[in-house]
Amino acid sequence: MKSNLDLVDECDNFPYPDKDPKAHFALLSSLYTLVSQNGTPIGYLLESVFNSLVKVPIKLKGELEDISAWVPPIRTPAPPSDPSPSSSTEAQRSALVAGTTAYWREKKTFKVLDGWRDELYPVYGPGNELLFSVERSASALLGVVTYGVHMTGFVRDQSASFGIRIWIPRRAKTKQTYGGMLDNTVAGGMATGEEPFECLVREADEEASLPEDLVRANAKACGTITYIYIRESRAGGESGLIQPECEYVYDLELPSPVVPKPNDSEVEQFYLWTVEEVQSALGKGEFKPNCAMVILDFFIRHGILTAENEDHYEEIKRRLHRDLEFPGPHKS
User: pTM of the entire structure?
Assistant: First the structure.
């Protein structure tokens, strides 16, 4: 059985400099850093990704500044002493990224691009401005922060421990990523230009057939969780890609007559489980890694996971809210 700390380790598995400095330094030494126009780090690339980037025709990818970083703007960055702003636009930078990732897809350079979604994810610059957008399936190749929403739906039941039962969906076995694993009641990625709550409303309908008016009136924002995930085979595509993420977390108390139902091919079925049933599934490793993190956050906020019953309580709390060094709305 996995402990709660094991579940955190499985998702937030990028080494911490204070906890394991040797592993942290070794991993950073093997990565290339993606930087913005002014040199602000915005992502981590594997050496294999960088080597493939070098081979992309320059008319598609723009200029390589040097062997340690790729600068998306068309123009070579000005020296730090030159305050001149970039002449490139977000649209131009996005076009360069799109050209690069489409080239990789055409050449079948990376297996992760087999999951091409035709969805764009935002990448932010040093002032939290939109720097460029990137195809969702390619975001992990650039190691940039991605954003999503996760909601836990529950019902009141005084006959159950802690007075609640939780709606847990099982992902369809046919999904390219984490097929057959357990998920949060509603979850999904945020596209460029999409606000967290509007993303939640959309996903609640698509994944759980929850009425829009019910979600808008009753869903409660509960902050965010942040972590850095080193992808493995269940995520689809290449293992080892770096994936920093920020998830906007919501709770939704549902009236007992409302039953979430699959509305697309992504969810196989929903279970209404007691806290103990959810804990058992967590211990068996049945949850998608970041969904386990959201459940632990829910347990902490609802007084189910406490310092009295969890030896690693403070560490778990801290690591559910990891500091991401890259810019973006999570810094706001």
Answer: 0.92
Domain boundary assignment for the chain: 4-12+147-331, 21-81+88-142
Sequence-ordered strand ranges (E) for 54-136: 64-66, 69-70, 120-124, 130-135
Through-space distance between the first and last CA atoms of the chain, rounded to whole angstroms: 37
CA dist 243 and 315 (Å) reads 21
Among 286, 196, 316, 205, which residue's Cα sits nearest to residue 248? 196
Asked whether 168 and 207 are in contact (CB, 8 A), the reply is no
Rounded to a whole number, what is the largest CA-CA distance in the chain? 67
234-291 pLDDT, tens digit per residue, is 999 999 999 999 999 999 999 999 999 998 888 999 999 999 999 999 999 999 999 9
Report the alpha-carbon distance of residue 249 to residue 149 in Å, rounded.
6
Residue 241 structure tokens: 């890609």
Element (H, E) at 294: helix 289-301
Residue 220 is encoded by which pair of tokens? 């409660």
Pairing of strands 64-66, 41-46: unpaired
Q: Which CATH class is domain 21-81+88-142?
A: alpha beta
